[in-house]
Amino acid sequence: MPRVGGVSLRNPVLAASGTFGYGTEVPLLDRRHLGGMVSKGIFLAPRPGSPPPRIVETASGMLNSIGLQGPGVEALIRDYTPLWASWDFPVLVNINGESVEEYGELAQRLDSVPGVAGLEINISCPNVRAGGMYFGNDPRQAARVMARVRRRTRLPVWVKLTPAVTDIGVVAQAVEAEGADAVCAINTMVGTAFDPRNGQSRLAFGQGGLSGPAIHPIAVHLAQRVAAVVSIPVVGVGGVADADGAMEFLFAGCCAVQVGTATFTDPCAIEHVARGLAERLTRLQGPALERLREQPARILLPGSSPPQGEGTGPSPVPGNGRQNAL
Amino acid sequence: MHDLWAVLTGRRAVSESMWVLSFEAPAIAREARAGQFVNLLLRPGPLLRRPFSVYDSHEDTIEILLSAVGVGTRLLLQLDTGDAVSILGPLGHGFELDPDAGPVALVSGGLGVAPMPLAAAAAANLGLRVDWVHGARSAAQLCSEWSGDEVRWATDDGSRGYKGSVLDVVPESAGQILACGPTAMLAALAGLYPRAQVAVETLMGCGTGVCLGCAVPRVAGGYDRACTEGPVYPAAGIRWPELPAPAHGPA
To answer: What ipTM does this complex have?
Structure first.
């Protein structure tokens, strides 16, 4: 039961936001192998999302411009959180705003709602006209969002970072300084695709977020960069489709991973990653074991002593993520 | 719903550019209803699955209809008998037949014929008369297979059957219309027969309701998912000008 960024995970493999709905949709998956999940990004108000076409397959990846379609936070609380409260894995809510104030209001609304184990601040969505990546591009804006959210909730707060910055480490440090309990690296990369036959964008929105195996090495690199400059846990996200991909993030300095696009192809992808990773960690030996013992992911090794602050409650003091995480 | 590795057991041409592939998929064959679809994964192959209407099912076998429209379909057509693909399904909500609504017209254009054999069988099971109404650009592109009580062909060039739109030959006696075909055809059909049930085609990410990629613009407002609430809709329920024609480039 690794504790990462204030959240007690059942194992280090989570479902990534936007690829697992509200936890009820993905068929066939044995949820006992789910370490935790991050729900589809939510705004205060309902949003219809972007017009179709919304997705396009690319070489080793896909672009999406879903546009954060969702029912709004009240419907989420009413329709899903009672269910989450009965689940034996933690659910983090991915929150989105068009203003700093909106992030704060969402955090306040979700604070102390049973079933919500934590928040993941999305300051990195490329598919909204206002807000989204704007906040993630600028360390000062990112810090403002984090500071506002921190003041409005005692829930653990993770921040999902955009790769579309000159130095992702600077943004990571900015949100760490304002009390983030963990950072997730990375969200999708912005991409565009044209249909060469008619010159039209393949996405009605004109651009989308690139995900899947295509971004995996970039994500590992940026996660490593983040891990090198912050003390809070780093959660690796980007193109994980098997245990090997997850292990790469652990060697890069992450102590958990999220599986996203792989679930679209294989509803049981998370289960396969989680089982494979558990086996790898058990069998790890030689130089690989030595290297992992030097990384934050050593908390995942069998027999490692449980970290301090074990439990499911919220962070007792805002901004103490670095203490109760590692 | 099932996800199983299914062996290719047969392939036959049904027009100059359309083929029917048969797979041994007993659990799916037992459950599949007309208008539902399956999502096929090729390994090695492209990242995402490819959705196909269930064309027909027999005991342990399901059939799909396809044309070589992109990398996935080309690879599928290169499979040899005995090769296996992962099949997820059956998915989505299919056609609903009303035993008291009278004769059924199955109206299809081109590849839109894909869900119709299963629909014909379902209608026949209810004792309903079935008119098979199918159009294509030319005789060579018409699906050679049909089932039901009577068939009406339409071709753009008049090389077989009526010369003109398939919509011109929908029998007036039809009490219920099930349709599938190009988006423009379905949009026109919606104007004539708002109560028809139409199976739409969209780009699709997961097929299971998670990715929200297969958005269908609804008259009632917002979007829903072709893979979950669809792919069959009342024709009058869709904001047709906003539903893209399937872009077959990467398929």
So the answer is: 0.94
